[in-house]
Design a protein that fits this description.
Shape: rod-shaped
Order of helices and strands: HHHH
Largest sheet: none
Structural class: mainly alpha
Number of strands: 0
Helix content: over 70%
Length: 106
């Protein structure tokens, strides 16, 4: 017998369909009653839907909410102070050059 997954599924499906078609009236009535009983016991729980939505919203807020940039802030402050130091150094170099020019010409 050559059984591929598709042929196996088809054979099982056909066997189950055939077994359902040949159920007696008593078994069909019991199955129908069990189904109705199960459906009647179903209790609506709308809070579950809200709970899932709240969980998704919370996760989205945590992932999207901007995080504090302490490291970047510190790096920016250091870079700004370095820039000021370089500007001061340039100014001192310029002043020194000006002083040398004045001293040299006098």
């Amino acid at each position: 017998m050559n059984c591929t997954p598709d042929t196996l599924v088809d054979e099982v499906s056909a066997a189950l369909d055939d077994s359902v078609e040949h159920l007696d009236a008593r078994t069909l009535a019991r199955l129908s009653h069990a189904r109705r009983t199960a459906l009647a016991q179903k209790v609506e729980r709308p809070w579950r839907a809200w709970l899932g939505a709240a969980a998704c919203a919370s996760l989205l807020v945590v992932l999207v909410w901007p995080q504090p940039q302490t490291v970047s802030t510190i790096n920016t402050a250091v870079l700004e102070s370095d820039l000021e130091l370089l500007e001061d150094l340039d100014m001192l170099t310029w002043l020194s050059a000006q002083k040398l020019l004045k001293d040299g010409t006098s």
